[in-house]
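Can't paste images in this forum, so I'm doing it all in text. The chain is below; anyone willing to post the predicted structure tokens underneath?
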Amino acid sequence: MNIYEAIVIDRMYHLDLGLFKHQINFTCSLLKEKYGASILDTIDNRLANIPRFSELKIFKNGIQSLAKITANEYCNLMKVMIFVLDNLDIDESIQNKLLKLYEDWNNMYLLSRYEEFTNNNLKDFENLIINWAQQFIKLFKASSASKLKFPKLHSWVYHTTDLIKKYGCLNGFSTETYKSLHKDFVKTPYYLSNKQNIEDQIMKMRLKNYRPNSKIYSGLEHLLKYLTIYFSSTNQINIDNYIINIYSSVTLENGSIIRATDNFYGKAWYSNIAVAMNPEELLEYLTDEGICYGQIYLLIKVETAEGNVDNLTLIRWYNFKSTKNQYHYGCLDLN
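Text version of the structure:
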């Protein structure tokens, strides 16, 4: 029996809390050994001075003072460490090696999150794993008491692509989603409670976040109805099986960002938009010189069983009124 086939890779524990944790620790040890503790203070200062950005954790006190770093925090470090290490006052050769190591790690990590792999994807993934591992071993072997004889490193280098071929993408075996849900829905409310009648307190805390009168829930109430109308109008059939992804924000081709969320830094943000109506249908609507105005309630992507993908918005119109079908002002429509 092959033990590495019996234990399928869990990306969160294998990479986030495993190999990347080692990479961070060995990087700090290497720099401290060569340049003293002050270099770690510089890294902490750079981390603390990163400007705020949506869904990016800011390490106000750096990472040296953290007793424990979570998987989510390691994921946030992946996004910024290559910039934090750039232009440090260290030997150019070491800096270039570290930057290349973190660049290859990020590319490798992104590939590990693929939902599907072609043969070319797997080949690229395997090459990235090998290139990253060679750099990792060359840089940090001397810093490791075991000379980097880690089961996770061996498994990642020699068995990952074989496991994907046999069992499918790594996403299917990750506990990341469930751990995150457990934290948000159980652990955090538990620590906020007074430890008396815990279940009741947790339920009340979760219900506070449920706002049935919010616009996104209004959109969800109408979604199925308008999806049916949309699919009928586009002559799509066999739509019993489809996947709907709901987004809080989308970046348009022109760089503009539209949002539909109850919680953007603690406040609701539903973008107001102006829509240039189809010239061929212009006479069917009452418009402002061909323009209609509305507010986005939902941003969704619909994937059907046939592989069709539709990016759609559910809009509540401000001034829409059809001369053919006398809809009420303010009705919802799917576009």
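Residues 287 and 320 are 7 Å apart (CA to CA). The chain is about 50% helix and 15% strand.
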